């Protein structure tokens, strides 16, 4: 995904921030007239983190896990079987395993593995749970963001692949924070900016800021096929 790669190669925090400010407009373009994704995204980014933070012990409920999965599927490929699997978990088990995952942080491997013991939850869904409750250390494993990180192998929905990706996201968040005058960057912010840039380049490029003087090349605009070597 060359378009998202152009943002990754940009070292200016102000330009990353300008891309991040376009998220709402890009999201509306992606959501379409029904606006379901827009409503789910607002819940995921505002209401869910507040609910998790307000609890004596961080966790998610089964209803929240099901809604989070709906958000994830609305951003990517619809897979109804995953929804059935997640719904098969008992409410008590979801609370227990998600609370255990948050307690295990910052050991990301252990936290992801704790969540992956739930039916229908793989590394990408686990990453979405952790990013909602601990955005300072976790980032959602979106296809767009993974594709933008240079040097990663072909996308695999495995814990190993997620940790490789996350380490690069954490490094980039640290670098952007050091050079930023507007505030702290988290891995969650980095993923959101990469997703916004990739989707915006595809659907509404006129809404995105100019990253620099270099012209757009044919490679930047050529559509690419998504690669999947393991389904989550």
Mean pLDDT over all positions: 88
Helix proportion: 55-70%
Strand percent estimate = under 5%
Order of helices and strands: HHHHHHHHHHHHH
Shape: globular
Largest sheet: none
In angstroms, what separates the terminal alpha carbons?
20 Å
Radius of gyration: 17 Å
Structural domain tally: 1
Low-confidence stretches: 214-232
Q: Which structural class best describes the helix and strand composition?
A: mainly alpha
Please report the total strand number as a whole number: 0
- Number of helices in the DSSP assignment: 13
Descriptive report:
The two termini are 20 Å apart. This protein has one domain (2-217). Helix content is 62%, strand content 0%. With 232 residues, the chain is an all-alpha fold. It has 13 helices and no strands.
Keywords:
13 helices; HhH-GPD domain-containing protein; mainly alpha; 232 residues; 62% helix; disordered C terminus
Q: Short summary of the structure?
A:
The protein has 232 residues and is mainly alpha-helical. The chain has helices at residues 2-8, 13-20, 23-31, 36-54, 62-75, 80-87, 91-104, 108-115, 123-133, 143-148, 159-178, 187-203, 218-221.
